[in-house]
Amino acid sequence: MNVDNSNEDFIHTKTVFRRHSKGPVMFNGCSPSGDVIIIDNISQKKSYDLTGWYIERQTDSQQYLRYTFTDKFILPPMTTIELWSSTATPISISNELEHNQSSESHEEEQQTFVIIKTKLLTWNTAQQWSINQLFDCHGHEKAIFSHRTLPPIEHEKEE
Fold first, then answer.
1. pLDDT-derived band at 14, boundaries 50, 70, 90
2. What residue segments make up the domains of the chain, in order of their start?
3. b or e along 59-75 (b: 16 or more beta carbons within 10 Å of the residue's beta carbon)?
4. CA-to-CA distance for 120 and 148, rounded, in angstroms?
5. Which of 63, 101, 112, 155 lies at a CB distance of 3.0 to 4.6 Å from 105, suitable for a disulfide?
6. % the chain with pLDDT above 90
7. Chain center to CA of 143
8. Residues 17, 35: contact at Cβ < 8 Å?
9. Dist. CA 80–CA 102, nearest whole Å
10. Which CATH superfamily is 15-89+108-149 part of?
11. What radius of gyration do the chain's Cα atoms show?
12. CB neighbours of 156 closer than 8 A, spacing ≥ 6?
């Protein structure tokens, strides 16, 4: 089958991701498709009790969502947790990361990866933007992760 793509115009978009944290517990990523939210504890020595902490997610296409961590949810040092929606299929990145580590990094503490299948059907799909906030049990913002897809780039027409 021969497909002629020469007459198709490509749409160029740019997606900007931003993250900020007040401490070593932070977002590592959030899937615009609503499959997974990833949180890191980058502290090399301190565990964090996330009991009562919560994530608030707002997107352009679906309603506001809140997820609260259950009792005795301890995030050990140097640990990444992947919080998957119940309808998504978890794909761990740990094998790829371990494979790409240099020999020097084996002397340091290695990152631990934990996959958690939540009871949420979805983390809500985001078409053009999402804002994800992590709050402690007292309602203080600890981390934020956002994405925004900018409008398509207009191409100059050749004369």
1. confident
2. 15-89+108-149
3. beebeebebebeeeeeb
4. 23
5. 101
6. 55
7. 12
8. no
9. 19
10. Lamin Tail domain (2.60.40.1260)
11. 19
12. none
